[in-house]
Amino acid sequence: MIDDFSAQDLSAVEEAVREAVAVEIMPRFRQLAAHEVDQKSGPHDLVTIADRLAEEHLTASLTKLLPGSAVVGEEAVHADPHVYGALRGDAPVWIVDPVDGTRQFVNGDPAFCTLVALAHHGEILASWTFAPALDELATAVRGEGAYVNGERIHAGSPRPGEALRVAMAHPLYTSEEDKWTLARLDVPGVAARPCGSAGLEYLKVARGEMDGLAFTWPSAWDHAAGLLLVAEAGGAQSTVDGVPFRVDRDNALPFAVGRDEATAVRIRELLRGA
Question: Which ranges does the record mark as transmembrane (predicted)?
């Protein structure tokens, strides 16, 4: 599938992402009116006009670049949960989070990004993580490495003897059971904190700025781009049942991500209470 995509095609995807952000997101950054911000499932689950219009923009441009492809976007799935089923179909799928870190975007915090990944039969083939307010574009193509603004990045391994820096699912978005499970990371040798934009947390792991992640929710748009980015930077991931997280199936949760295999395993075992 990805073999059919040339360097020119990959560049066209980047341009499509940049254009959607330039047209629909950045003109509204720190310019949102009250009526342009809504709640979905609760006061912390926000959506803005920028989320909706950017996803519509990307849906049109990406399916034009790859005829016959489908789009699984956060806002489309919120409107019709059946859209998520495309991840288990035969068509290639664009997985889109138009504004990852909407809470930050609404608050005028630059730590938000746009996430796009291309998947086929559950395999993530390419990804784009664009943080426009930070002027950073992270890209990954399966088997070809991870890059930020054109320079290759490597996750490396944690320094021996230092506490693992782990970002975990934010308490605003977790159940009481999830909180109890994540509390297992409160042990000597682990410095855990709530995560911000999932896409930017994955980027920090891929760069070696964070050692690991622990997530309790499965939404493909939050994870697809980052999982490939970390994998191509040399990192690893695993659900609590010891198998990789995949976007085309139900996964045992939570799941762990690490700069290297040993780190991912350590976080996973802590989450299991092992």
Answer: none
- What's the pLDDT tens digit per position in 244-272? 999 999 999 999 999 999 999 999 999 99
Q: Which fold has domain 164-272?
A: D-Maltodextrin-Binding Protein; domain 2 (3.40.190)
Is 250 known to sit in a ligand binding site? no
pTM recorded for the entire structure: 0.95
Q: Which residue has the tokens 């980015």?
A: 229
Does 75 show up as a binding residue in the annotation? no
Q: Which CATH class is domain 2-153?
A: alpha beta
pLDDT tens figures, 82-99: 999 999 999 999 999 999
Q: Is 100 annotated as a binding residue?
A: yes
